[in-house]
Amino acid sequence: MKKKDLNYLKKFLIQQLMDLLNRSDCSLNGLDDTDDNLSDLLDRATQISEREFSHHLCSREKLYLRRIERSLQDVEDGVYGLCEQCDKEISLARLKARPTARYCIDCKTQLEKMEKLTGIDAT
Ligand SMILES: [Zn+2]
């Protein structure tokens, strides 16, 4: 993935994270200057999501928050945009539509078949 695209998606993920966190009434001092310190942001988001936020966020939001955190962790680890199943690059169009995607479209299609059978959302 091009660095420009990675930065774009990273910013998008951070924005989503902020939106989710800001939806609650907890005080979030320090969460604004995040761009240079992603691991701090992630630490803080994880702490918040596990403690204070547990009562405020509905489970769907919490699930999405965790997905964003995971994707941002992947950005940090340099593996963002790679399919968890087959290690191929996930298409940029797919990531732009769904920045927390963890599988390429081929694997996702496979998994969706499984989901229909098991009722478990594997993304
Ligand atoms: Zn794949």
CATH superfamily, called what? DksA, coiled-coil domain
| Biggest sheet statistics | none
- Computed Rg: 15 Å
**At CATH's second level, what is the architecture?**
Up-down Bundle
Mean pLDDT: 82
Query: What fold name goes in the CATH topology slot?
Result: Four Helix Bundle (Hemerythrin (Met), subunit A)
Distance between the termini: 21 Å
Number of domains: 1
Order of helices and strands: HHHHH
Which descriptors apply to this entry?
123 residues, mainly alpha, Four Helix Bundle (Hemerythrin (Met), subunit A), globular
Helix and strand layout, with pairings?
Elements: H1 3-22, H2 38-50, H3 59-77, H4 92-97, H5 105-118
Helix pairs in contact: 1-3, 2-3
The chain binds zinc ion.
Written account of the structure:
Helix 1 packs antiparallel against helix 3 and helix 2 runs antiparallel to helix 3. With 123 residues, this protein is mostly helical. The radius of gyration is 15 Å and the shape is globular. 20% of the residues are buried. Helix content is 59%, strand content 0%. Zinc ion binds next to helix 5.
Write a short abstract of this structure.
The protein is mainly alpha-helical and 123 residues long. It has helices at 3-22, 38-50, 59-77, 92-97, 105-118.
